[in-house]
Design a protein that fits this description.
- With 209 residues, the protein is mainly beta.
- It has two helices and 17 strands.
- It is globular and about 55 Å long.
Length: 209
Amino acid sequence: VILEDSENENILYLGTDNGLFISTDKGLTWQDFSADIPNVAVHDLVIQSREKDLIVATHGRSLYKVNIANIQQINETINGKEMTLFQVEDVYFSENWGNKSYTWGDDAVPSVAIWYYLKDNSNVSITIKNKEGIVVFNRQAKAEKGLLKLDYDLSIDEKTKTAIEKKDSKIKISQAENKKQYLPVGNYTIELDANGKKETQTLILKERK
């Protein structure tokens, strides 16, 4: 099955007998788009325009959903750049992160999707800092060209927790039931470094009122 994006005619989604693929240049080149999907046939594709979600129907392995809001922003300008770090949605902080809502339930774990685009294969570093400049997250990897996504669960290690509390005595970070600590409310800077060039975006953790 092949599907043209509902907002960007340059973007095509292709379901095959062995997963999902995407093109951002009207089919001239393709890249694997099935990192979180098992090796299974994709029989149908539907876009929910309001939520900007792509629904992927597989043969016998259920449905999968991915938000394509950032993908739809890809245009000739972005394709011409060496890299692009997309805007990240705001997140509402919850005291329940890392805890079970019910005895039989799973832990409530947050997740932030960090989308970025690379024109060429690159050595990349993704760093997140708080307003005081404390590094709360860093990931380095060799990344292939194309559209990529990094999921971050907003957890921090004990050393980072101590550094944050030492810098601001008003902040107290508790350990959750899953033995993890999570970022407190605040504004954070996401920095993408690829082959010596940088782009930044802001991650905002809001307090729910």
